[in-house]
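Hi support team,

I submitted a single chain yesterday and got back a structure, but I'm not sure I'm reading the token output correctly. Could someone confirm the output below corresponds to the sequence I sent? I've pasted both exactly as they appear in my results page.

Thanks,
R.
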Amino acid sequence: MKFPLHLLLASATPPASAYLATSPTRLHQNRRPQQRPSTQLQYKEPSKGTETGESSDQTNVWSVLANTERWISDTLDRSNKAANARLDAEQKRREQEEAEGKNAFHFAQEKKSEPLPRKDNPYARKEVSYVCEMGDDVAGVVGGVFRRVREARELGEGHGKGVEARAGDSTQPTTMRQTNVVVIPNCDEIEQFAIFDRLIQAINQARRASRDFVLKKKENDDGSAEWVVSINCAHLHPGYGTPSPEEQLAAMKHEEEEGEVDVNIEEYKRRRDEARRSPYPSVIVEVQSTPPPDFGQRREEEAMEAAAKDMEEADKDVTSEDVAKLEALFGMSAASKSKTSVDDPFYDALGEAFGKKQVVSQTPLQRAQNWVLEHDPAFNEKTSTFTKSNSRHVDAAYEYVFNNLAMLAASTPKPSQKSYVVLPNFLPTSATSFDRFAGQVSNIIRTLPSLAEKVIVSTFHPEHVLPSTRSPVPIVVITWK
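Hi R., thanks for writing in. Yes, this is the structure output for that exact sequence:
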């Protein structure tokens, strides 16, 4: 088989890329793919041409978390470099002073100064997790923040229970610390720093107010000291520290009255605000679980254990004759009981006094529905809704109420529509605490422009002063204007 001459010459000529690789730059680029590690990034890099990649990667969870983590690391690295530069200058000054002292007193004993401790990234020695709230509804975002608070509390309580379960070992109780960064990239309503700041302040105020609530303890609560679980919520924002027009006017008036401006304070404020300007609105949830303080309770527990052992030893003195006497006594009681009576005489007397009635068990939701149907004239069977939660803790109750509010807002509620949130296990013995809880819910709603003028929150409670609002179980009523 014959081929044309130009085809044979073309096949014998090496490819053009081989000649391009003769330059050192091209050789380095050709070797680069061989040096890449086997692992790959699990998130998309920000798109080129934009500063943060918000235009194309805003809905990508991994990109949002990567941008936030990179920003936090860079911010702390700049701060650590500045601190380490000051430490290096101080270390150099000490070494110079020591050198001058050696020259003046050559017979002095040589002493080496210990190096000053250097600053490093605190996240390198702390357990930090990053989560992303991708919802765009502000009520759902508030519910998500309370969910993170609840999970942090449960994590701290679980750590305490785990340490108590290992109390028999020779290990000392340890303190747990964890930081959770909640990034909120898609909620347009909190793009302005003033709105986001008021929202977080209202959430923290609601958490502080819950300390005065009268909570019902669990039935299996043995009265032992509980671990101290403390949770702190802070916030970051791209426009952190941006003053509102009213704040700017007040600052200008203050400068005019003072007549001078402290440049150092202004520079400190500027750097402080820049250190909190994250790529996306974020909430920092920090949890710390510490052992309960010992106020002599250990000695009381040891005394109670000794008393229990004495009682057990006393129970060992019971003989078989005592057991036989008890059996004979109970046998006489059963023989002397009237055959015509089925129940105990006490219950027979109650039946004769009040009449024999059949007891029908009802769930808390059914009891609430029957009471509302009878006592609430604004109830509409076509538009009103009922939901129930067995939450006992404050953060779980806030989470459930705001998640319910987000669900209702997404369904375009009608005017005067009511939603009854039944909480049978939350604050069942204190109407005042329950009203304060509803008041804090209203305060948080007032910080949200999309819901501030649309929702009214009211309550029904078994311990309420007014008989018209005295329901069998605690109920939060959400009314749409």
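A quick pointer for reading it: The radius of gyration is 35 Å. Let us know if anything else looks off.

Best,
Support desk
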